[in-house]
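Example with several molecule types.
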Amino acid sequence: MSETDALLEQLRAAAAAFTDSDAHLQRVLETMAADVARARNERLPIFPVIHHSPASAVHMVRWLRERRPKIVFMEMCEDLLALKDDLRDCTLPVALQAFAGETVGFPAAWTPLSVVAPLTEFSAEYQAMAYALQNDDVELIFVDRSVDHVFQWADRSEDPEEPAHDDEDDVDDDEARLHGAAVGIEIGQVAPTFVEFREFLLDNARMSRFEEWTSLYIEEPTIGSTTATYREILFLVGSLFRRLGSTPHDREEIRKRDRFMWTRIKEHLAARDVPPEACVFLCGAAHAVDDDCPEWGLASDARFDIPARTETRWLYGFIPSSYGAIEHQFGHARGAVSLSESRWKKACRTWDIDPFTISRNKKQAKKAKVPKAPAQLSLGVVLSAPPELAEADAEELVQWCTGVVQAARQNRYLASTADAIAIYETSILLARMRSRKRPSPFDFIDAAETCLEKGAPPGRRNIRQLCNRMLGGDRVGQVGYDSLPPLVQDVYDRLAPLGISADTKRITRVLMDFVKHPEKRACSKLLWRLNWLTPGTRVARPIMGELKLGMEPKQESWDVGLHGAEQRAVIQLAFEGVTVEQVLERRLSQAAFGPDARTVTALEAVEGALILLDSPRLTESLGHRSVELLRNELGADDAAEIFERIRRLVHHFRGTAEGLPTWLSDFVATGYAHYATQLPGAFGDRGVRPEQLAAMLSFVFTLESLALAMGCNRSQLVIAIELSAPQTADPEKLGLLWAAEWLVQVRDEEAVRRAFGAILDHPLGRTAFPRYLSGFLQALGFAPRIAPIGVELLGRAFAELPDHVLLPWMPALLGELRPRQADVLPALFKEVGRSLPRDLAGLDRWEPAWMRPAEAPPAAEPAGPELSDGARASRALLLAHRGATDGWAAAFGATGAWTEGDVAPAAPAPVPTGGAASELLARHPASLEAWARSLG
Amino acid sequence: MSEQLRAPAEIKYADELDWLESIDDGRKPFSWRLSPKLVRVFVLGSRPRDGLAREVPQKWFGPAALVEKAIVTLASDRGLLLIGDPGTGKSWLAELLAAAVCRDSTQVVQGTAGTTEDHIKYAWNVAEVIGKGQSRDSMIPSPIMSAMQAGNLGRFEELTRCTSDVQDALISILSEKYVTIPELDDDNVVFAKPGFNIIATANSRDRGVNDLSSALKRRFNFVTIPVVTNKKAEKSIVEFRVKDLLARNQFDVDLPPALLDVLLQTFADLRVAAQNASSDDERLESALSTAEQIGVVEDAILHGQFFGEATLAPEFLASSLVGTLVRRVPEDVSVMNKFWHAVVEKRAKEQGGDWVGFLQGGKDAMELHR
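Resulting structure tokens for the full complex:
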């Protein structure tokens, strides 16, 4: 009886045992047995694998050492093969990446396209690659569809950018997001995609995670078996999952890829003079099955008509990966990849496996150890009885128990030796209940969680995370210098003066004193550029120091992370350009010239170009673009930010030798006319907030002198403000408008005061007074001279408004004023200091300005010089005798008319006594009387 | 009809437990009546893989790993503390476990603010003490002490409602496994027999809880029971409990699957709305647990049976949902009204069917609260 017949018989017996009518099940099982036979008898040896499986890796090493194949065909995107030599310089785990920033033939929403294929040391594919790279006479060929085909065959109704992930686990570390939004490719995916099948499988096995199932039913039985048995089991699993565990859509996709791969294999074999038996085809277990695929197997001559790639230009490289990122990307349980690593190490120790490694030195002098022969377990034995476990090691469980208790204590858990004993006991009990000979790591984690977790974790990590760390922990790979793209190498070279070790994967704190080390200024500039280009990462974070227009720092402190997990962000930049500056220029230009560009983004780009790039050419081009955008901009949404940025730029350029550039003068003139034109509409538009209006007016009034110098006309503004008045009835906008009218002298101070007074005095209008005043205070930003009235009105509001109006308004007022402490509050405080009494004594006498009685208009003072007593007396005399005075005036030929102020004094002016004139008059009383009579 | 309004699990499933015990050849810890594997089968139901000649229905719905953790804890030296939101099935799980392990789930201490140490340890029969003096005969053992003497599981419901000093009375019971009776000169220690352990439950949501002391915490293994959000699992729970109710009342009513979907979807939507609400005033006071869904269905069935047309109509279901969930008037009415217009009305327009009657029933019920 052949082995296949024996298997078939065993499967038939199983069908008969589990079902009443075994016809259908028998058919299924027979198909599976036929699949196994077909795969085993294929001329080109097929080596089925499971992703990141130590069992696959162990058997791969054995197979390669025994058979020494000449060609290794591998299920991997064919265009990624160009990267294979660069693997020598990488520390695993790393991911092969293909990236396309601009695409042709794909939906625009998918751009940019990115694909990652992570590699770990304990994967069969890495062992095969290492074997091929170590031996010059061995050829490695990737035969799967290209990355372009990955997207060509993707469902266009869905967004392919969303990677799968396990919802149950909280992903709280950055390492888990290392792959970003890339689409993941994994060799040998075996998880069933047919949800019901998967649930049934897990439910029946009483497990909650598929990794646990794989571990118990595939890894553990096969890791100690012969390679032949391993292959058969994997063929069987592949057949089961492909035929029963895949959705029709996935099954079709697998079939399509089979057609592609077998066509490529046939092409390559035809081009080379190597017998198929001297090669190996490494693929996922599901691909080992001939499932209605005409191209499957070398016996068939059928070839697939491979569709052409699109015109999309793909770029290739490496990015660092991590176990956490792999788990997150492919939806594995947290800690599953770490557990695989520890299982791999243990298997290597147990069977003296000498794994293949990729090193810089191509030739490895060391002679490989001869691996221990595995147990001669046939397929029948493996299927019928649980395996003798290679790692039956009670000591290890004790170490885990004590280790996790120690880790828990360090993380502020109340854990003691008694807990270690309880965890040990619970692990054993759980394993027994789950029909295992000894506790698996999953049992141990469950036990540790049961015994130690008491509600909320006291520290940063919970017990599950601590267990995962202890059982291997996450590991972050690194791409070596030689394998890095030019941009990243350039960054490393230029930051060399900072002395950051290439070995460290941690964040390094860097202190720079530019007085002592002026050469570090260049490093600082590069760090600022990286900081701008990689927001949200830890590549370059300033701790002390800031970047402002015209500022020359003396010292700076940075947290720099160029290696480890942060390396990816820098590598990602390399897909956009050859140097950081080129990428920066490109991004700035995109911000200003892109389809979503707005004036404010263009101005931001201008500032970026000024402070980050020192490029006058780019600055000017971006500046002109901002003027163009402003001309076409509708609404006032960005008015405040535009004003702030322009004010900063004007101040900066005024301080330079060259003065204001043309584009900036143009911007101010355009902005003045633009905002002046928009004012009436903005006052009438309910969608425009008073703050936005205030920002428009700020622009207009603050930059007015410059705009007028550029040929703008003030009358345009005056007309606009006059036109605005009838447009609005909103109290806040009216308050703001009155201030603007005052500034353009359409309304005087008294009129403003009267307008507010009328509202305050009106019993119905009084409730709206705070809103009028709020609007008025908005004007303080561009018109500090309104502060006295502002203070006066605030005083009146506090004094006269009823509590039910005043109290709700006060928090709002504070809320409004708080963010404006830089521009509005100083003017208000200054005015308050001026108008309020300075000491306690003054308070008693102090009377608010608005409570003082209206002062009588001052009496008209006679014009002219101060008069002496004698002259005043003469004046009084002349006023008392107007007829005579008129006569004298006519006689002297003087013209003129009496004015209202020319009033005769009530009492006769005192006659000056003493002096020579008095004596003369006293001596000649007759003459005096005659004079008096003649004067009447 | 049974003489008991609600039979404890060991009586209700006595036949099944007897059968399981008869076929159990697994290793049993202490004096357990079933091996841990069959305890799990009893609670979670059997699978073809178990190879049992008879199907054992699932009685508690939730993550299997939690039940396994709970069972192994009971076989260990530590007490079991089930923590979770109200209505997640903590007490039901405790009852099932006690029934499976020792066939006695009635040794229960109900924790309240008024629980004293006497309720946990022992009290005295005053008449007996006056008549005959203090002796073991005049002592009234607590349910916990009775469980100790019998080597059974004692249950402590709502442990965190007791004050800390009362809770701490459990420390010595869980550590030394005996209780001393200082009032007696002889025979003054009650030792626990093998198999004794405690299943306590605690509510993680209630604001009035007294947190456990560190000493007590380390004598308990905590198993947190999550709120069921998986629609499929929730459906199974509601169906299971409703079937139970129908059997108890001898009603002959079908719970139409489409109508059950309406209820489950409404609860799922309500949970989303509660999650997105920015303040307590914008969310219902209810925990929106599975137990409340069961309550809604029960209420609707009873209403239909006694006052309606003996069928479960969507209007009754909506009306009982509103009646069950609206506790604060007018806050909850306002939240519910908003939800009804924004979500239920939309679903009624898009999907029609039972949603239309459900929409109207809810509106009518809310009118009554205005």
